[in-house]
């Protein structure tokens, strides 16, 4: 489903998918249960906390080796805590799992836990969740690991490693039996301890052989998937990968419009119920990207620089953007316009170090959860009214945050 469709048709498709599941979910032998949990990493301490979103109670505290960035798996059953400066990744079991039964899905809720499996390598950075696995890229290790999720829950590691040519700050994404991998410029002159720039994207098959031609993608940074497509941010535009069968994915560059100001996309999000991508364009603009449209780009202006942005998985036409003036903006991705905004935190300037403590966003149970490290809080905001519903006190400086959960039948 593409953004080029008219809004009424878009919303009808979303509503229909919900109604199909409703009769079975209300069957007499099914009790509906809902559970949501937040996982919050501290900015100053090597610790991650699991929090019950409903009552704010801390469910667990997990001591790590270093500062952690958090990434939830596609299923939501695990969270990867990537500690780049400590060369290690821990995995946390969220304790929330779903199983699909056609007309309904079941939910199982158990204790969260720090799993006994860790992954060590030189500067792990990007973690890309996809289907039943995740891809972990080691910037200084010259490899990427494809990690199967199911064995992790049994305390085991099932890993397939991919050669990334040379150490670089890159990314790897699976597409069927193929893997899309960033390409470093090994001929570039770099300063001591610096990493070479990215110049292209290549495709390798299940035997590690490169197939097809490399696609130019200068300064490649940022990736996302939507439906069956993958997108990568480049200096020249956004590179789109489409499934191509046995011959491997097809790579097509969407150049930025010539009348746009000079900038690039370096962070991308992918729509779930609709096929589209949302990326930054510089620091104070966003790019809405519909790869199947004759005019694939729409530019969204922001009043100040963005601090964080996220898509709402349950309300697919909503995106939320926090800007450095403390305002939360609701973007209607179908209309390509900011629908409303309101102040939700104090101003947090983007000046200073890129990893200074600033708010981060998550969506849980139809509400926006915002870390506020200055005040040791997670602020919960209603996206319709943009009013603060409540706050959740969190010790220390809450920073990186992910939310997992939902509703299902409980037998």
How many runs of DSSP E, i.e. beta strands?
Answer: 34
CATH class: Mainly Beta
Task: Point out poorly predicted stretches.
Answer: 4-27
CATH topology: Methylamine Dehydrogenase, Chain H
Strand content: over 45%
Number of separate domains:
1
C-alpha geometry: globular
- The count of helical stretches stands at 2
The CATH superfamily is identified as YVTN repeat-like/Quinoprotein amine dehydrogenase
At CATH's second level, what is the architecture? 7 Propeller
Helix content: under 10%
The biggest beta sheet reads: 4 strands, antiparallel
End-to-end C-alpha gap = 34 Å
The radius of gyration is 21 Å
Instruction: Give the averaged pLDDT, no decimals.
Output: 91
Strand order of the largest sheet: 3-2-1-34
Structural class: mainly beta
Keywords: Signal
InterPro entries: AztD-like, Quino_amine_DH_bsu, WD40/YVTN_repeat-like_dom_sf
Signal peptide: 1-27
Protein name: Zinc metallochaperone AztD
């Amino acid at each position: 489903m593409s953004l080029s469709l008219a809004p009424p048709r878009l919303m009808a498709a979303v509503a229909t998918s919900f109604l199909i599941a409703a009769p079975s979910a209300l069957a007499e032998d099914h009790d509906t249960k809902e559970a949501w949990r937040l996982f919050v990493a501290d900015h100053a301490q090597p610790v991650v906390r699991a929090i019950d979103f409903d009552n704010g109670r801390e469910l667990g505290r997990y001591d790590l080796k270093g500062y952690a960035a958090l990434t939830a798996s596609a299923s939501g059953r695990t969270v990867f805590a990537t500690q780049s400066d400590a060369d290690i990744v821990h995995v946390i079991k969220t304790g929330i799992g779903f199983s699909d039964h056609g007309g309904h899905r079941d939910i199982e809720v158990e204790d969260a836990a720090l799993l006994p499996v860790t992954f060590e390598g030189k500067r792990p950075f990007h973690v890309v969740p996809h289907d039943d696995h995740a891809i972990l890229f080691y910037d200084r290790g010259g490899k990427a690991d494809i990690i199967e999720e199911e064995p992790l829950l049994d305390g085991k590691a099932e890993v397939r490693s991919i050669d990334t040519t040379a150490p670089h700050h890159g990314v790897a994404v699976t597409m069927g039996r193929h893997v899309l991998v960033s390409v470093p410029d090994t001929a570039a002159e770099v300063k001591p301890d610096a990493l070479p720039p990215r110049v292209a994207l290549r495709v390798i098959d299940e035997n590690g052989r490169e197939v097809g031609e490399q696609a130019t993608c200068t300064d490649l940074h940022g990736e996302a998937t939507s439906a069956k497509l993958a997108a990568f941010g480049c200096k020249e535009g956004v590179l789109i990968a489409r499934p191509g069968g046995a011959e491997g994915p097809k790579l097509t560059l969407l150049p930025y419009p010539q009348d746009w100001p000079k900038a690039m996309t370096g962070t991308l999000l992918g729509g779930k119920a609709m096929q589209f991508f949302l990326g930054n364009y510089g620091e104070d603009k966003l790019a809405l990207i519909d790869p199947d449209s004759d005019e694939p780009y729409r530019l969204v202006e922001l009043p100040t620089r963005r601090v964080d942005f996220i898509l709402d998985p349950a309300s697919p036409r909503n995106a939320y953007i926090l800007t450095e003036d403390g305002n939360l903006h609701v973007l209607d991705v179908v209309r390509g316009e900011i629908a409303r905004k309101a102040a939700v935190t104090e101003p947090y300037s983007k000046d200073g170090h890129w990893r200074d403590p600033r708010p981060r966003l998550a969506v849980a149970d139809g509400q926006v959860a915002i870390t506020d490290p200055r005040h040791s809080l997670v602020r919960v905001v209603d996206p319709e009214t943009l009013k603060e519903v409540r706050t959740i006190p969190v010790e220390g400086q809450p920073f990186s945050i992910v939310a997992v959960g939902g509703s299902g039948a409980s037998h």
